[in-house]
Amino acid sequence: MTLTAGVVGVQGNVAEHAAAIERAASDHGEDVVVHEIRQSGVVPDCDLLALPGGESTTISRLLHTEGIAPEIRDHVAADKPLLATCAGLIVASSDARDDRVEELGLLDVTVERNAFGRQADSFEAPLEVAGLEAPFPAVFIRAPAIDAVGGATVLAEWDDRPVAVRDGPVLATAFHPELTPDSRLHRLAFFRGSSD
To answer: Is 46 a catalytic residue?
Structure first.
């Protein structure tokens, strides 16, 4: 059976996420077709979904004006996997501490935007992630951090702050796993129960 994947393409690293999903599926012995999502009507047909980074206020606004937001909520309610990265984490959270962001409320976390500094403060770090045997080369770019965790499970921390969490079918990271050839994070997000 061929899986249908969607990458929300209103902003962010769409092609990189699509390539990472294809690699992760191949590593897991799955066939996948990846669609870029810029309007409503596509998400309901997706088996798995990625919500990339970008600018969280812009992403939030476009998700709601294009009618994609309720479809993402329905996707998660149906226990289908969602990977939300960087600004995607902010938008998926229950509290972004920013009135300009209309959160999706899919992650029981509170987020601080740009917690690790500006674009000039970007860095890469070997990150210990629960579920992965070897460290993951995490790329942080204007990265948020998780200030408070409710019902979500912390998978990784950097500088004593949570930077990767899972809440049901949602896996979210403060960093950009798509900017590395390592597809293990996408595999962890989309093929739960698969080994490293």
So the answer is: no
Catalytic residue among 71, 86, 103, 112: 86
pLDDT tens digits, one per residue of 20-30: 999 999 999 99
CATH 3.40.50.880 given to domain 2-190: yes
Domain ranges of the chain: 2-190
Question: What integer is the mean pLDDT of 123-150?
Answer: 92
Using an 8 Å Cβ cutoff, are 7 and 165 in contact?
no
75 is catalytic: no
Q: Of residues 30, 75, 112, 176, which has the active-site annotation?
A: 176
- Is the pTM higher than 0.90? The answer reads yes
